[in-house]
Structure formats: C-alpha cells, structure tokens
Amino acid sequence: MDLVGIGILLIGLASIAVAVLLIKPLKKLTNILTSLQVTTGQLPEQVAGIMMDTSNVLRSGTAAISQINQKIGRLDPIIQLAGDIGKAVQNLTASVTAINKEMKAKTDNTVMKRYNLEWIYGIAALGYCIRQRKNN
Q1: Domain range enclosing 62
Q2: Which residues have CB under 8 Å from 120's CB, separation 6+?
Q3: Tens of pLDDT along 1-50?
Q4: Res 56: pLDDT
Q5: Which of 23, 48, 110, 126 is 20 to 30 A distant from 63 in Cα terms?
Q6: DSSP secondary-structure letter at 45?
Q7: d(Cα 67, Cα 80) in Å, to the nearest integer?
Q8: Is pTM beyond 0.85 here?
Q9: How far apart are the first and last CA of the chain?
Q10: Contact present, 118 and 112 (Cβ < 8 Å)
Q11: What confidence score (pLDDT) does residue 130 get?
C-alpha cells in the first residue's frame, strides 16, 4: 500500500471513532428535540385559548363601558340643572353686588365705617332684590 491508501484508511478509522463517540450526545439531542416538538405542538392550542380569554375580557370591558355611558347619559339632565342653578346664583350674586355698590356710593357715611356697620348694606340690598323679584 502506498501512502494515499494509508491516509484514507486513517481518515476512515477516525470517522468511525468520531461516530462512535457522538452516539450518546446525538441520542440526547434526539430526545431533546422530541420533547421540544411535543411542547411546541401544544403551543397553538394554548395561544388560541389565551386569545379567546383576551377577547372575552375585551367584550366584558366594552359592555361595562357601554353601561357606564348609559348611566352617565341618565345623569346628564341633572348635571345641566346644576349648571343652570349655578348660573342663576351667579346672576343673583352679581345683581346683589351691583345694588350693594350703588347703595354704598349713594350713602357714603362715616358713621357706618366707624362702627363697622357695612353689613347693613348687604341686608338692604338683599331685601331690595327680593322685593324686585316679587314685583316682577
């Protein structure tokens, strides 16, 4: 035999030795890949279940928001009424303040200031405003 034949024979023996040494790791790799296939085989079913649960939660949330919107819609007249009452009170306060300032300007009295009797202006303005309301 010449050197080429010996080299090929050594390469063949080395390949057989490597194949024999790799039998155990390759069997373990096969087992790992088999268990991975089983695990990933269940994955589509699990994802489908999660998606179904998520869609149910979203439907429930949408229904709850719809109910809240309906209840707020029922409260809308009450909120508008409170706003109207606020505007009426603001108008009344503005007219009482204007009357109070006018009366104070007309009756600028040092006695009132000295004895802190300015509150009389407020009572008089309120009485005047009430009387005007009854007349109208």
Answers
A1: 3-135
A2: 112
A3: 688 888 888 999 999 999 899 899 999 999 999 988 888 888 888 889 99
A4: 94
A5: 48
A6: H
A7: 21
A8: no
A9: 135
A10: yes
A11: 83
Residue in the structure block whose two tokens are 């010996």: 6
CB 125 within 8 A of CB 103: yes
**Are 122 and 100 in contact, with CB atoms under 8 Å apart?**
yes
Task: Provide the H-helix boundaries in 1-136.
Answer: 3-21, 23-106, 110-114, 119-135
Count of CB atoms within 10 A of residue 102's CB?
13
Contact present, 126 and 105 (Cβ < 8 Å): no
Amino acid (one-letter) located at 99: I
* Amino acid type, 9: L
Residue range 49-100, pLDDT digits in tens = 999 999 999 999 999 999 999 988 888 888 888 889 999 888 888 887 887 7
- Residue 22 sits at φ, ψ, to 5 deg, of -90, 0
